[in-house]
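Reviewer 2 asked us to include a model.

Predict the structure of this chain.
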Amino acid sequence: MAPPGPRARHALTLYSANDGLDSHLVRLVLAVKGLPHDRIIVDNPRVQQELAQYNPLQSLPTLVERDVVLYTSAVIAEYLDERFPHPPLLPSDPLGRARTRLTVHRVCEEWGRPLQALLDG
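Predicted model (structure tokens):
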């Protein structure tokens, strides 16, 4: 699989919604890690067609790194944290990691989903 389109300048390309919370989460991870990437907002049929070459489901966010195509924010975040371990997103001890995951889960469920419903209208 070739890198996405002639406009790609970086090894990582993120196909994302402009205002989706899952897309914001992945952009936050990329920023915390300081990872250069190309961000493509999927907002027209031409870009949707381009995305379909990599992810037939066309779900957002989708991350492309050379031959690797990943989607869903949790999978992308875990991949980026393992692929680029510094700075780490999670504490080093099992209990600390579990507590962090629980906090993220609660924020997504208690705040994120209702907020996304408001954004979706």
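Strands lie at 12-16, 38-41, 62-65, 68-71. The chain has four helices and four strands. We have added this to the supplementary material.
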